[in-house]
Amino acid sequence: MSIPQDPIQFLTLEEARAIDGAMLSMMEKFMTRITISSLRIIAKIAQGLSVHAEELSPQQIVQWIEHDSQVRQEQGEDAAFLKWTSPHPDLDFEDTRQDEVTPAKLSSHEKFLTRMVISAMQALGAIAKDYSIHLEELSAEQIIAWVERDAKVKREQGLEAAFLSW
Known about the structure:
Layout: H1 13-21, H2 26-49, H3 58-75, H4 108-131, H5 140-156
């Protein structure tokens, strides 16, 4: 996978432009951005655990993000991988879901991010399988091309893109 020079950047300007130029609906473009950004997090987690990304369990993702959050709280944002802070840290929303993320020691914003990353695993797994490569080897270009092909097929069949179901 071609990770940008700056590890904080989850979507480069070139990738954003490529997504904007793709033959995709606005929702498909949005989901593609999330998928590529999630891939960067998943690849970092897999690298840290010395496993292939497709071997990661949702619990491992939760634990890693929880640990990264703890690093950010204890050592500051520069020490963490995920460098983001809520502009409204006191604005937390109720978490009523019951899943592997619910008991994690994370803010509601971090739980949302964690659920996005876990959800992206399904789409990324399908894309990597189609290319016969490990998930962490996927490029943004491959993801965009796959989503375009999938969306085109679904439109021709008169269906909403299966990609959106993840």
